[in-house]
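Have a close read of this protein, sequence plus structure tokens, and explain what the tokens say about the fold. Thanks in advance:
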Amino acid sequence: MSGCLTRLLLPACRLATPGFVAVFFVLVMLGLQLWPGASELLRFSRPSYALGAFWQPLTSQWVHLTGWHAVGNALAFALIVAASRYWVRWPLQMLALLGGYAGVAVVVALDPDCSYYAGASGALHGLLAGNAVSLALGAGLLRRPAGEGGHCFSAPLPGCRLGLGAALLIFLALKLWLQSDGGLGATPSRWDFPVYRPAHCAGAVGGLVLVFMALAWRAVAASKMHAECCQ
């Protein structure tokens, strides 16, 4: 029975590569944008949320206010995943993205000044922050066998991973600070609508925290296993 289950699940596991996940994400994002009425139903609206549309803080991150907005975020997601695929394992990247989604959903739902919201930029900040934490803690590129999403690579030096991760975190923190009112002034939006900056901060924090917790749990589990083996 277990052998049959393994044979059924193995193709799905092989498909769940960074490239496949990125293509799926982009197709869903652009498909929902083109689906008539989907954007109006899924985007966050404070009056609708108050009347019971509880799903909107999450689903608003799957739709966008304009077509170019959707295309821009889809390309940004594909670029981040592609650039990180040999440095950060894709399950950690997806965990960072989920943390970004969660952080944005919380701040959108709880902030009474947020009257409407749509877009994945906050979640993408979570993906970027989570990937940076994975790099900084040395949990990124491990030795990958050939055929598992690419060639056989050896892990970079720990100091290199730490430096890249720290630099990415500093860059992200500086970007968020400059875009906030407390920095050198909010960066003007390139879009035809105002950008809700708290979503970027909340998404970054969500991705960072969730990935850090996962790595900490894995480190504790590894320490326990090592202690048991030494007994």
